[in-house]
Structures
1.
Amino acid sequence: MADQQGDRTRVDLLLAGGWLLTMNPRREVYRHGAVAVLGSKIVDVGQASDLLGRYDPGRLVDTSQMVVTPGLVNGHRHLLCCPKGAMPEGGQTLQALRDFIYPCFATLNEDQMHAYALHATAEMIRFGTTTFEEPGCNHLEAVLDALASSGIRCRTGPWTWDQRGSAGATDLPDWLRTDADQALERLRKGIETVRAFNSPLISDAVTIEGVGTCSDELTLGAAKLAEEADSLFVLHKATSEREVAMELEVFGERPLQHMHSIGALNDHVLLNHMTSLDDFEVGLVADSGARISQNPSSALKLAKGTTQTGKWPELVAASVPLALGTDAENVSNHQDICRSMQLAALLPRDARRDANAVTAEQAVEMATIGGATALRLDAVTGSLEAGKEADLTCFDTNDFDWRPLHNPVTNLVYGTTGHSVHTVVVAGEILLDAKRLTRVDEQALREEIEKIDLEILTAIGIDPKPAWPVL
Ligand SMILES: [Zn+2]
């Protein structure tokens, strides 16, 4: 409880001084703003001069040289990792999955999974992410333990498929091969496991893989389970023209259209990628209330055709909740939502030859309140408002990328990267302080991941080398 110290109210943390983007319903921006935090919650947002006079903080963070935003949201980030930068170049989605990514996943033991989860969350926090969606991991208990150690906010569930989808099971590993009933049981157990773990920062998700590897029975069952459990149904969908061609051949319908036809599209669904849509499918998504995470750098690296067949301006215009994601380790090779914002704002402009196709403001919405809404966590996070959880990202503006600084929105979207993140707060706790992680021995973690990477590369028989001669 807040108590009075003289005429000032005691709070745990006060961040005060500089630019502050609230992302509240009026999208108010303070030139000299402040946020007061007590326990895990924001108790006040306003002018720095007012809040400095009103509150007696346990710790005062001077943000006069910073831009403060709601904690960034990553709508799609796998913790099932593979050695970064080691994936053979040139493979498109389905080939890359079968030749490199699935074999890596299949070899991961519990300890390796734990270390990868710690490393990925550390990287996210370093680059300003406070909340993310994990679209299906293995060794869920180890992941939950790593998430709790990291202090980040997350939605997660177990990696699940039945390998009986439109793509067939050819070239898929035996790893986790099952039938629809057993897969649904795995998903139910996943919800139970996450809820029994009982962390206020970790929510459950009903996570299936989805790119042609799941039967209609599993897809529909998972959609119903998420609705009944009031969770979030997460899957990869409409990821490429190749997936569209495959489903047209098997079902006579496009992937999103088919999902709608079988009754699996509703407001508890988060669709990942969605780079290949027809105009009529935008209406199906909007009418169903479904949510989307777009992953622009992943789409570019895997040549998904997002600028050719994406419908991003139409989805924004239809008010579909949109998050930004970075996807898996080797398909973005970074976890920087600032870079995702830049691409989300710029790619549709070139695609449509329209400089207003997606605005800088809309990109910031995707990275904050839009992302939180896509994850069904907007009651908790995504904006700086009294009563919400204290999730904040503070950017250090004392460098060339941020200066001159007249409009923090345009500088944030076009000019900077997550390297300028200085302070990160999740649920009132400072997890990044002066660009250093407070809970993690960064060097020890890096050394451990290098070691695990070599174990995995040896197991799958890949020796990653530059294309040029190494002397
Ligand atoms: Zn993915």
Note: The chain has two domains: 4-71+382-437, 72-374.
2.
Amino acid sequence: MGARQHRTALGTLNREPRHPLLPALAAQCISLVAVGVPVLVFLPALLAQPLLVALLQGVVAALLARWMRAAPWWLAIHLGFMPLAVIVRKLELPGWLWPLGLLLLVLVFWRNDRNRVPLYLSSRQSAERLLRMLPDRPCRVLDLGCGDGRLLRHLARERPDCRFIGVEYAPLPWLWARLAGASLANLEILRRDFWNLPLSDYDLIYAFLSPAPMSRLWLKSCREMRPGATLVSNSFPVPGVSEDARIAVNDRALTYFYVYRPAGARSTIAAT
Ligand SMILES: C[S@@+](CC[C@H](N)C(=O)[O-])C[C@H]1O[C@@H](n2cnc3c(N)ncnc32)[C@H](O)[C@@H]1O
């Protein structure tokens, strides 16, 4: 990798806010005060229409988030958060549903607020395409953030001569992946944060993450992956780094694989 590509990757990494939940919380609190106080003092009659007040609060929160340069999806979250809370409250659901729903969300999405990699799954066609990229000889494959593990289960069934390792930190997807893959001897599911996992032991590393961690992942891959090993990123290229190959998967989402050799040496993985 050239010095310029390294600098570009580092620059992108440095722009990532470390705690995106904090500005979101600030936008919600400030807009609650900014809308709530004037309504209470000057227009208390408006309290009879809580949905209208919630909509107003949502608009102010979204404007604040935009001013704070939050990512676009935060604007939609701010716009909808209070109005949705008002609507759901009207449904008079049992009180225990709230903490249960929250618990499930936390167990599935875990530290998504910080790492900005939500759970969505690779298509069947992606799994098939990845299968065709495996070399004829036995090899070791790592899925960084394996979700419910279905991609690895498919590969493990088709290639009993290879070893597949999935690493996932969100408790529910990890548990699902672990239980569903328990009968496959060549599949191992680890509950770990992949940033703490050395990448030196694999022939192919697959990542279906988001744009947010790609620069950091690139730097880690360059440091740790062994010569000849291949990094395949589903959908998200590494900013500022030219891929060695770009492969169209031909699924409904028009997925592309971005293929890299971070350690530079010739790979034995078929890239086309
Ligand atoms: C987009 S999903 C991809 C799931 C699976 N690899 C697939 O292709 O179907 C990304 C997964 O990575 C997990 N993840 C994100 N950051 C992680 C980390 N630092 N350590 C372990 N898992 C992580 C998320 O919890 C999520 O389940």
Note: The CA atoms of residues 110 and 170 lie 5 Å apart.
3.
Amino acid sequence: MIDLLNIKKILIVNTRSSDRKLAGMVMWGAWAVASYYKKTIKGSNVKFLDENNEDDFLEKFKEAVKNIELVGFSLTSMQIKYTVPLVKYIRENYPKIKIIAGGIHPILFPDQDYGNYFDEVVTTELPKDTFDYSLLPEQVKDVYRKKRAQVVTGFNCSYKCAFCINSVRNKRYEGVPVEKVLADIDYVTKEFNPPKIYFRDEDFFQDIDKAEAIIDHIIKKKYKFTWDTSSRVTHFMPGRIDDDFLPKMVESGCRQLRFGVESGSQRVLNFLRKGQTPEKVKFAVSQCVKYGIHATCSIMTGIPTETTEEREETYKLIDVLSSYGSLVDILGPQIYRPYPGGLLYEEVKKSGYKLPDTFEGWINYYDESPVGDVFDTDVHYPWLSKKENKTLPYVWVVSHYGLNYSNSKNLIKRLIGLLFKWHWELRWFGGWDVKFFMFLRKKFLRTDLE
Ligand code: B12
Ligand code: SF4
């Protein structure tokens, strides 16, 4: 085991996870680790480099490793491809540098053969109670100032949806103590004066008392930022998010909630162990609309065992939700992409879907089996028919642009919207126009779902 107490010069690296950089995003795991080492190792000099948020990342990385004792890589499975070349560079040029890895990939695959890439692979979480703002990349700070800051209010979730990592890791909700959240809000407001704050949480209202304390604090301090967060639809009930609570939320600046709607079929929702009904979804979304809050509805299709009729139930639910008006954003339905972990992953394994069993097997894994990007159209999932593999990757583009754009004030957006709405009404997820649009969209407008 590496004796970290005798190591002072540390570099924590977060590489990109696909050919597309996730610019402006906060990479919580790597930031937590860099902050933890900086706080706990006396006299340490800790640097944090996130490829998503650096121009000339490679040059900066090469410069940084010249004078470093230990490099720690934060790894999701998709980052392995981009991490290995950096590890090889260090091994070849600076053999004395110790290299460690940690993150969700080692946590999910603690027994995998990691070869000689790392001197140590950490398969547990490090404490995540400090996020040192001086380590946050400048590009992220800029986003905090101009667009949206983030404040963490909780980690994980006590539900166990079959497709979610929470069901594999058997995690429970870990709320950040309310005093800490309030102090963080005060700090972020003073330091960055953000127009908007995203409360990073898998389910912000899981601790409703904490949610209320945060809302009261924002009102008391008369902060002007708006805020958004993620919620389960099931919190919309008397005594939780109800007609007494919603006006307070709005007063405090709540303008958007994100919901995991997933499916319009009760059978599929039960299969996913989602613990919600389409009626609950409709109620939550209509309540948001009533109070002027945007409801972003994230929806999936191509779920193992889902039938054509059940898919149509999802499309019908989408029609109902979008009929509530322009405050409803339909995100998806995106094709279900299996990532390792989750009960649903056990299901896809039955259809012959296989993940690599060695660390090296992951390096090019996603080249042939593209997951992780809404623009992936070349999918070959064994639980789907040939036709479904061809058409389902285009469903989100038809619904997203057809339903969200067709009433736009911008003429070009409206024309695109009307064309796609026509496709949507015919349930026609093909045609050269859709494919050509997807091609252009992927080439020129890759960063946001605009
Ligand atoms: C918030 C979130 C995001 C955010 C922020 C991502 C980030 N890296 O912080 C955004 C929106 C950017 C995002 C994007 C994506 N995400 Co995401 N995301 C999450 C989510 C919900 C929470 C992550 C988080 O904030 N955790 C809190 C931090 C503090 O914990 P942590 O990252 O695990 O880090 C701790 C330990 O792992 C360890 N550790 C971490 N790094 C290191 C390094 C060293 C050296 C050491 C010693 C320890 C160590 O200590 C840390 C502190 O305790 C997770 C699900 C989950 N609950 O884990 C999915 C998850 C990580 N995402 C996932 C995916 C697939 C993606 C995307 C590919 C999605 C997409 N289609 O683009 C991208 C890839 C981004 C990337 N490179 O990480 C998958 C990863 C699956 C896998 N096998 O790797 C997960 C697990 C969800 C799932 N499907 O199950 N995501
Ligand atoms: S999908 Fe959402 S509600 Fe379900 S376990 Fe995951 S974080 Fe919790």
Note: The longest strand covers residues 254-262.
